[in-house]
Amino acid sequence: MANVTKSRPLSPHLQIYKPIPTMVMSILHRITGAALYFGTILVAWWLIAAATGADYFEWVNWFMGTFIGRLVLFGYTWALMHHMLGGLRHLMWDVGYGFDKHFSTKLAKANLIGSVVLTIVIWVVAYLIRN
């Protein structure tokens, strides 16, 4: 018997599927979930610095105020907002809504746009309160 699977993949993969918004948002939801694990280490580091003493706490605050620190915090904020909105989308699916192809595509696009807008709003409000 000839092996007919030798010239084709054993299972579908990204070279076969055309990326669609819902698939991309699903992948981003997993990536942001993993990123939040590492971002939570930053929150723990900040809290540990606060408990350790004023000098170390000031150093951590200085580092988070640098360009790299703020870029990491901005990315953490976006990951948090994106994952939260993705979680709400999944919750909606869990209760049986939003399975229509066109609606789920709109919801996936809204997830990305909403996460970017919320991140920018959070940072603008934070800067306005700070000054």
From TrEMBL:
Listed cofactors: heme
Claim: Membrane is one of the keywords in the record: yes
Segments traversing the membrane: 27-48, 60-81, 110-129
Topology class, membrane: Multi-pass membrane protein
Family the UniProt entry places it in: Belongs to the cytochrome b560 family.
Function: Membrane-anchoring subunit of succinate dehydrogenase (SDH).
Protein name per Swiss-Prot or TrEMBL: Succinate dehydrogenase cytochrome b556 subunit
Organism per entry: Peteryoungia ipomoeae
